Amino acid sequence: MKKYIRLGFTAVLAAVIAAGCGNSISNTSSFGQYNAMDTVVAETAAAASSFDNGMGMEYKNEAGYEEEWEGEAEEGTPIVSNRKLIKTVSMEVETEEFDSLISKLQSRISGLGGYVESSSTNNSSYYINNGRYANYVIRIPADQLEELVGNVSELANVTRKEENVQDITLRYVDIESHKIALQTEQERLLVLMERAETVEDLITIESRLSEIRYQIQSYESTLRTYDNQVNYSTLYLSISEVKKLTPQEEPGVWKRIQEGFTENLEDVVTGVRDFFVGVVVAVPYLVVWGAVLFLGYWIGRRVIKKRNREKGERKVWKLRKSKSQTDEKEQSEKKE
Predict the structure, then answer these.
(1) What's the rounded Cα separation, in Å, for the pair 55 and 70?
(2) HSE-up of 82 (CA within 13 Å, CB side)?
(3) Minimum mean pLDDT range among 11-20, 176-185, 291-300
(4) Which residues, 6+ apart, have CB-to-CB distance to 238 below 8 Å?
(5) What distance in Å separates the CA atoms of residue 183 and residue 31, rounded to the nearest whole number?
(6) What pLDDT sits at residue 259?
(7) CA dist., res. 151 & res. 95, Å (int)
(8) Residues 226, 166: contact at Cβ < 8 Å?
């Protein structure tokens, strides 16, 4: 079974290289007796067969990364011993000592060789005091991830924790295989370029080389990204400042009664304190509004007094007028 797998891999790799060269160079007769297609296929097959050590497939790329094919998994999937794993951890924690936790956390991260990729901190507003909170994206060496998670658990109260491991081994090996195949094709094309006899052949080879270089750079960029994600795990950390930590276990009946009574008593004390503080803080407003109300009251009384005085004067005037008319009437009656 292993022999068939090795032969199949060799045949597929040779076919890929042959197809690439066949598409890029349509006519090789101008190179005399030199048959480019046969040479590329033969050298590629030889290179592929050199990977076989009789116990399975093993090769080392330019970066020194070794892949060992130890056998077959279900449905013919090869098993790789040196796996590429991307680890991420998400944590939500709470603390009563926000500033101290932030300081200790940054010290631990630096000590473990990690760094903070991004962070955001929100302070409580003047009118709404719900506590501060912060969000961190931390990159840490993969072998130090567990220690950092343990440190965070010791420094703060963990309310949520989620771990995720993504295995990209097969994807990584596939991309690296494509890269190696393209590099092999590139070397063959460079040989063909030196032996090119016409401008048309030279232009065709250069065009294909440009495509290959672009694809190789793209694969290398992807591999570097994967290496960074594998070598440095990611910790998403959310920190909340609270007045009281959330209990880790469900308390008993008497414990709940005690805690409930204590919380209510604290709420009453806090309410009285907040009311006193509110009154003291509102003194400037009370003085201003008191002055405004007093001024309004004083002006109102003056207006009312003035109206009452005018009303009394009109009443006296009417009485005098009525008395004068009565006297005149009596005098006219006496004369008659």
Answers:
(1) 8
(2) 11
(3) 11-20
(4) 91, 92, 93, 133, 134, 135, 136
(5) 23
(6) 67
(7) 14
(8) no
**123: helix, strand or coil:** coil
Residue given tokens 């276990």 in the structure block: 249
Residue 129 CA to residue 59 CA, distance in Å, equals 61
Contact call for residues 21 and 188 (beta carbons, < 8 A): yes
C-beta of residue 192 within 8 angstroms of C-beta of residue 205: yes
Closest to 267 (Cα-Cα) out of 256, 278, 259, 255:
259
Neighbours of 259 (CB within 10 A): 13
Contact 106, 117 (CB under 8 A): no
Give the pLDDT confidence of 85-138 residue by residue, as tens digits: 999 999 999 998 899 999 999 999 999 999 999 999 888 655 455 678 999 999
Given a contact cutoff of 8 angstroms between Cβ atoms, the answer to whether 18 and 41 are in contact is yes
Strands 85-95 and 232-241: parallel
DSSP state of 56: S
pTM above 0.90, yes or no: no
- Asked if 237 and 138 count as a contact pair (C-beta separation under 8 A), the reply is yes
Structure tokens at 102: 């932030």
CA 290 to the chain's CA centroid: 53
Using CA atoms, how far residue 30 sits from 137, 194, 303, in Å, is 60, 13, 118
Distance linking the first and last C-alpha atoms of the chain: 158
Q: What is the pLDDT of residues 212-240, one digit of tens each?
A: 999 999 999 999 999 999 999 999 999 99
Q: How far is CA 238 from CA 137, 144, 278, 300, in A?
A: 9, 19, 33, 60
**Six token digits for residue 96:** 């009563």
Question: 148 or 17, which is more confident?
Answer: 148
Describe the strand order of the beta sheet including 78-80 as a list of residue ranges. 57-60, 66-72, 78-80
Segment (H or E) for 259: helix 253-281
SS3 140: strand
Q: What is the amino acid identity at position 72?
A: E
